[in-house]
Specification:
The protein starts with a helix and ends with a helix. The protein has 13 helices and no strands. The protein is mainly α. It is 85% helix and 0% strand. The longest helix has 45 residues. The model has no long low-confidence stretch (mean pLDDT 77). One of its GO terms (cellular component) is membrane.
Length: 342
């Protein structure tokens, strides 16, 4: 049990690191190079995803091919089987891809419009949307404690208070971010469901999702002339821009992989909680690095409330884990006593 807790915490830390690096690299790209072509950025990210996953699949395929040499299955049969499995998986992930694509576009566009401290403040409402989606999808089988409700209230209200002073700066950015939160909460539950029902791995989900989105993003970029604007972008052939552009796409890949891994190994609530805990470092660092917002009473109060809520939630979950540990020990002791009597 102790090893499982350590593993869960480690997975959450990896997710937190990937989330921070992606947010800062994307904000750097938007702010320093004044690049706001979200569709092209998503198209490039999905391309990177497909390339990395394909390389992994080829390596895995060659290994399987060697293992199948001594069997009765031909290489052609193996290819056909894998192709059919790929088509089946792509169909299963279409609803997820639609939700993810829309949410990712809203999130990236919001990040380009809102300062990181406020972006992170409103992102903390994710835990509220995860809670709502869990109820709507009928997955709320466990009894809801008073401490849990208090923690969700503190986190959500703190996020709203943090953005009050600056809410009128860019209403569109705030609305897009809330849409991103709603769809992110849905995506976390869909990812967990695909893992439980279809045994999807995090890499499988990234791969299938990217294959589904790539042609759609390409068509949209052509119709909206985003692709034309990209090739006319003044900083396109600067080494610094291409490096930053590629890093955002790479960090996006690792963030998706870490997100799905954390969701499948832990839970959607673990993702939402990690969001809040990492924000204390992200908020302070973003104020120092970008200086696009000055701390004020609302921001300080809002962030403080959110962190109090995160602490209450963490304490509640630790108490639940200890209680389960105690129940497991008691159950094991009872089984041992029964065996001894027999």
């Amino acid at each position: 049990m102790q090893n499982k807790i350590i593993e869960s915490v480690f997975i959450c830390l990896i997710y937190a690191f990937c989330s921070m690096t992606f947010s800062f690299s994307a904000k750097f790209l938007f702010k320093i190079f004044a690049f706001h072509n979200t569709t092209i950025l998503l198209l490039y990210e999905t391309t990177i995803n497909i390339i990395i996953c394909t390389i992994y699949k080829i390596i895995k395929y060659n290994k399987e091919k060697k293992e199948k040499k001594d069997s009765q299955i031909s290489i052609l049969q193996l290819i056909v089987t894998q192709f059919k499995e790929r088509v089946k998986q792509n169909k299963l992930t279409i609803p997820f891809s639609i939700s993810y694509g829309t949410g990712a576009y809203c999130g990236m566009t919001a990040l380009s419009k809102i300062s990181i401290p406020l972006f992170l403040a409103l992102r903390r409402t994710l835990i509220f949307f995860v809670f709502v989606v869990q109820i709507l999808m009928g997955k709320n089988n466990q009894q809801i404690s008073f401490k849990f409700l208090i923690s969700v209230f503190f986190i959500t209200s703190g996020a709203i208070i943090a953005g009050l002073e600056h809410f009128n700066d860019d209403v569109q950015g705030y609305l897009l971010l809330l849409i991103n939160n709603m769809l992110s909460a849905l995506n976390l539950h869909l990812a967990q469901g695909l893992n439980q029902s279809q045994q999807f791995s995090p890499l499988d989900l990234v791969y299938n999702n990217s294959i589904n989105l790539w042609p759609v993003l390409l068509i949209i970029s052509i119709l909206t002339k985003d692709i034309k604007q990209f090739f006319e972008f003044e900083s396109l052939y600067r080494t610094e821009f291409m490096l930053s552009f590629t890093l955002v796409a790479l960090f996006g890949f690792f963030l998706n992989l870490a997100t799905y891994n954390c969701t499948m190994k832990n839970s959607p609530f673990a993702i939402a909680l990690t969001h809040n805990i990492k924000d204390i470092f992200s908020t302070i660092l973003s104020i120092l690095v970008f200086a696009d917002i000055q701390p004020d009473t609302f921001l300080t109060l809002g962030i403080s409330l959110s962190f109090v809520g995160s602490f209450i939630y963490s304490l509640t979950k630790m108490q639940e884990i200890k209680k389960k540990q105690q129940q497991t020990i008691e159950l094991t002791n009872q089984e041992i006593k029964v065996l001894i009597k027999q």
